[in-house]
From TrEMBL:
It comes from Merdimmobilis hominis. It catalyses: 2 pyruvate + H(+) = (2S)-2-acetolactate + CO2. Catalyzes the conversion of 2 pyruvate molecules into acetolactate in the first common step of the biosynthetic pathway of the branched-amino acids such as leucine, isoleucine, and valine. The lineage of its organism: Bacteria, Bacillati, Bacillota, Clostridia, Eubacteriales. It holds the Pfam family ACT_AHAS_ss. It comes from the Bacteria. Pathway: Amino-acid biosynthesis; L-valine biosynthesis; L-valine from pyruvate: step 1/4; Amino-acid biosynthesis; L-isoleucine biosynthesis; L-isoleucine from 2-oxobutanoate: step 1/4. InterPro entries: Acetalactate_synth_ssu, ACT-like_dom_sf, ACT_dom, AHAS_ACT, AHAS_small-like_ACT. Belongs to the acetolactate synthase small subunit family. This is Acetolactate synthase small subunit. Its EC number is 2.2.1.6.
Length: 91
């Protein structure tokens, strides 16, 4: 299994995050990391997801994500493009 990270640009609307993550659940992908923020315009949000799987399954997932009406663009990221995510200690 390989580790993949994708960035998904979506319309900033109610329920979009649920529809995107449900696509992962239905295809039995375990999301390892999830980061969501507004994009440059408040009309859009960006969702960065890290997950494991094989290349063929990842490509099928990306094709299915593009079928969601609120998905505008998808970009596969490599390690040097990952956004800095804070690590929080729960002591």
């Amino acid at each position: 299994m390989e580790k993949f990270t994708i960035a998904v640009l979506v319309h900033n609307r109610f329920g979009v995050l649920n529809r995107v993550t449900s696509m992962f659940r239905r295809r039995r992908f375990n999301i390892r990391a999830l980061f969501v923020s507004e994009a440059a315009s408040t009309e859009y949000s960006q969702i960065v997801l890290t997950f494991e799987g094989d290349v063929q399954a990842k490509e099928q997932l990306v094709n299915q994500l593009y079928k969601l009406i609120d998905v505008c663009a998808i970009k596969e990221l490599d390690a040097c493009e990952l956004p800095a995510m804070p690590v929080i200690s729960f002591d």
